[in-house]
């Protein structure tokens, strides 16, 4: 049996279902992220694990014990809040020590444990400061130390890095993971930032409209998104609507605006409407007429380590990302060819959903 | 009376450009209010202070000259000393009771969800719409010898009690009148509180009571401080409540001032008592403010 187990957890607010039928098993020592756009129910799910929100249905088990209706202050979980929620009237030391005090750890034992937790997050010299005398990143670490010092069975992180600037966020991501590995605490993190979820999680749970749509390793979610929503939400993607023209046991051919494109997907039937997803970095620029498609560079953006091209062609505008290998990039307006290997194309059955602008808003 | 909130801004940063002209816009903009304040508050205060040093002739009722006899009389006469002590005792008691009732009230209010929160906020503020005099008469009808409270006491077999014209009654009525002035600042500082902070305390195993005492209360202390300063200041200078519910014998400072002005016609004496009340009030409130706020300045900023 898993260490933390959510079974058919549901939360309804009146007629609205915030979280519907969520089941999730987290192994001991695992780092799991709940990823989704705002309003998808990920924070409500975390709050139900924490005990601040009572589920309408379902059970939560921690190490075999049913904690569904247990009070928040009897669960003993370590929580890092989005706003950090430090106690502003206490010093860093007292903030970290608070949880131990509540657990009635003897005073002599408290001091070394607080010091150990502070040195884990590299904050030992700041023990006597008050939270408002610290920077955002330091407050974040205090919150982490405060949650870890009680040696919780599960660490819950609610958008822990969203209040930090981009550079600090990246540094903290790796530090968070390193600390989690060192301590070995089972961790559940809520985030809307896919880069954050991917870089530090063992598994990612993608949520959409109160439901789990996919649970998998970060790499698998990126390469094999199960729904079109996930492929749009997770990373950039080119979505191409088409119709199956031939289908065999080992593959198929799809017609995209009259251009035949080979696929390696089996099990499609002739005449079916499908949507193809191709990640921008899986497309290659070739000499004109050297690839499957020809097009023209509409725009190009320099991203430092990469070039992002918008290529106008018979299928509309496609995004292409190429590594910046130091060679001269394609000029704006230049004719280019586009090529890709059939194995990188992901196929979703059915027509393309409306409102692809969701992808533009949330991808990073 | 300064009900200054403790989050006073730090000194404005110095002008970095020394050539900048002296700004006139702020002067013009704050001018009208400053003039009004000077004309309506400072002038009468100044005149009262001047008057308190005048001699008073009982035979002719004329005032003039310079003397310190009124101040000496107030400071040395036990009659006045007792009235001052009673005033501050009643005010301190009313303030303490307002803290005990008002702080939990504001906390419960802040935890309510919306239709009820608005309704109860209105219930708390509604008494402010009724004149203090009317409310004082309301209490005197309730607590009078033939009032419903005594009626109930008789029905219960306890017998009639003399409720009016006692310190207790004045305190009860003051608490009733002053409670909104405690609830509002505390409620305001509760609004500024991050609700996750209390959740954090709970998540570390604190009981609800511990979370309130250790985490919530220290953070709303500035609100409690402002509230108690307002309540204490208004209570110490209250006139209608002690005048109507304290009767002729149970005097407070404001009623003594009134008597000096209108019964004894000894205006300089009344002025001296008023000035001493103002000074004493200021000293007590500033000391209190220092004591409590100095303790928390570094922590809460």
UniProtKB/TrEMBL annotation, chain A:
A GO cellular component entry from the record = ATP-binding cassette (ABC) transporter complex
Q: Which InterPro entries match?
A: AAA+_ATPase, ABC_SmlMolc_Importer, ABC_transporter-like_ATP-bd, ABC_transporter-like_CS, Mo/tungstate-bd_C_term_dom, NA-bd_OB-fold, P-loop_NTPase, Transp-assoc_OB_typ2
Keyword annotations from UniProtKB, A to Z: ATP-binding, Nucleotide-binding, Transport
A Gene Ontology annotation in the biological process aspect, one of them, is: quaternary ammonium group transport
GO molecular function terms listed in the Swiss-Prot or TrEMBL record: ATP binding; ATP hydrolysis activity; transmembrane transporter activity
Per the database record, which ranges form the ABC transporter domain? 4-234
A Pfam family matched in the record: ABC_tran
On whether Nucleotide-binding is a keyword of this UniProt record, the answer is: yes
PANTHER family named in the record = SPERMIDINE/PUTRESCINE IMPORT ATP-BINDING PROTEIN POTA (PTHR42781), SPERMIDINE_PUTRESCINE IMPORT ATP-BINDING PROTEIN POTA (PTHR42781:SF4)
**Official protein name in the record:** Fe3+/spermidine/putrescine ABC transporter ATP-binding protein
Automatic annotation (TrEMBL), chain B:
**GO terms of biological process kind:** transmembrane transport
Matching entries from Gene3D superfamilies are given as: MetI-like
Residues in ABC transmembrane type-1 domain copies: 84-288
Q: Note the InterPro entries from the entry.
A: MetI-like (IPR000515), MetI-like_sf (IPR035906)
- Recite the lineage of the species: Bacteria, Pseudomonadati, Pseudomonadota, Alphaproteobacteria, Rhodospirillales
The entry sums up its family as follows: Belongs to the binding-protein-dependent transport system permease family. CysTW subfamily.
The identity of this protein, by name, is: ABC transporter permease
What are the UniProt keywords, alphabetically?
Cell membrane, Membrane, Transmembrane, Transmembrane helix, Transport
> Where's it found, cell-wise?
Cell membrane
Q: Which GO terms describe its cellular component?
A: plasma membrane
Instruction: Indicate how the chain sits in the lipid bilayer.
Output: Multi-pass membrane protein
| Transmembrane segments annotated in the record for this chain | 33-53, 88-107, 119-142, 163-187, 224-245, 265-288
């Amino acid at each position: 049996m898993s260490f933390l187990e959510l079974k058919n957890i549901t939360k309804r607010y009146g007629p609205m279902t915030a979280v519907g039928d969520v089941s999730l098993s987290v192994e001991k020592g695992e780092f799991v992220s709940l990823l989704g756009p705002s309003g998808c129910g990920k924070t409500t799910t975390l709050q139900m694990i924490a005990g601040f929100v009572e589920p309408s249905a379902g059970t939560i088990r921690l190490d075999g014990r049913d904690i569904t209706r247990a009070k928040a202050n009897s669960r003993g979980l370590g929580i890092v809040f989005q706003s950090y929620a430090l106690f502003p009237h206490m010093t860093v030391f007292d903030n970290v020590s608070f949880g131990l005090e509540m657990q009635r750890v003897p005073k002599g034992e408290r001091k070394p444990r607080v010091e150990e937790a502070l040195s884990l997050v590299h904050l030992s010299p700041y023990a006597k400061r008050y939270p408002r005398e610290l920077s955002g990143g330091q407050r974040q670490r205090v919150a982490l130390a405060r949650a870890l010092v009680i040696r919780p069975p599960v660490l819950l992180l609610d958008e822990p890095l969203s209040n930090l600037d981009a550079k600090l966020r990246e540094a903290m991501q790796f530090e968070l993971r390193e600390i989690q590995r060192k301590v070995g605490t089972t961790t559940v993190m809520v985030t809307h930032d896919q880069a954050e979820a991917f870089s530090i999680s063992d598994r990612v749970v993608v949520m959409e409209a109160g439901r789990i749509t996919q649970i998998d390793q970060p790499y698998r979610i990126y390469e094999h998104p199960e729904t079109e929503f996930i492929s749009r939400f997770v990373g950039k993607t080119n979505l191409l609507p088409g119709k199956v023209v031939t289908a065999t046991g080992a593959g198929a051919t799809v017609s995209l605006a009259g251009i035949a494109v080979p696929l390696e997907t089996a099990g499609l039937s002739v005449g079916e409407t499908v949507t193809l997803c191709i990640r921008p970095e899986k497309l290659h620029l070739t000499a004109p007429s050297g690839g499957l498609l020809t097009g023209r560079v509409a725009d190009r953006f320099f991203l430092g380590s990469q070039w992002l091209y918008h290529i106008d062609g018979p299928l509309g505008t496609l995004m292409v990302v190429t590594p910046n290998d130091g060679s001269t990039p394609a000029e704006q307006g230049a004719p280019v060819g586009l090529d890709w290997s059939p194995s990188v194309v992901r196929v979703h059955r059915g027509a393309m959903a409306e409102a692809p602008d969701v992808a533009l808003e949330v991808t990073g | 009376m300064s009900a200054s909130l403790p989050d006073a801004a730090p000194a404005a940063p110095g002008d970095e450009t020394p050539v900048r002209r002296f700004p006139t816009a702020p002067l013009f903009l704050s001018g009208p209010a400053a003039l009004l304040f000077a004309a309506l508050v400072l002038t009468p205060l100044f005149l009262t202070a001047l008057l308190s040093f005048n001699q008073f002739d009982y035979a002719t009722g004329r005032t003039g000259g310079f003397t310190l006899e009124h101040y000496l009389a107030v400071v040395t006469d036990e009659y006045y000393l007792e009235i001052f002590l009673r005033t501050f005792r009643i005010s301190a008691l009313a303030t303490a009771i307002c803290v005990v009732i008002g702080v939990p009230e504001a906390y419960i209010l802040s935890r309510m969800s919306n239709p009820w929160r608005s309704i109860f906020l209105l219930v708390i503020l509604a008494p402010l719409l009724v004149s203090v005099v009317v409310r004082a008469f309301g209490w005197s009808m309730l607590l009078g010898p033939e009032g419903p409270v005594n009626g109930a006491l008789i029905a219960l077999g306890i017998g009639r009690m003399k409720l009016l014209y006692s310190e207790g009654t004045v305190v009860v009525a003051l608490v009733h009148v002053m409670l909104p002035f405690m609830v509002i600042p505390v409620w305001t500082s509760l609004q500024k509180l991050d609700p996750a902070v209390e959740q954090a305390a709970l998540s570390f195993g604190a009981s609800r009571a511990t979370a309130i005492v250790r985490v919530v209360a220290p953070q709303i202390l500035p609100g409690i401080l402002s509230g108690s300063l307002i309540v204490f200041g208004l209570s110490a200078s209250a006139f209608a409540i002690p005048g109507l519910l304290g009767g002729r014998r149970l005097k407070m400072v404001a009623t003594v001032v009134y008597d000096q002005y209108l019964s004894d016609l000894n205006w300089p004496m009344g002025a001296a008592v008023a000035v001493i009340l103002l000074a004493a009030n200021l000293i007590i409130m500033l000391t209190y403010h220092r004591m409590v706020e100095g303790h928390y300045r570094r922590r809460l900023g």
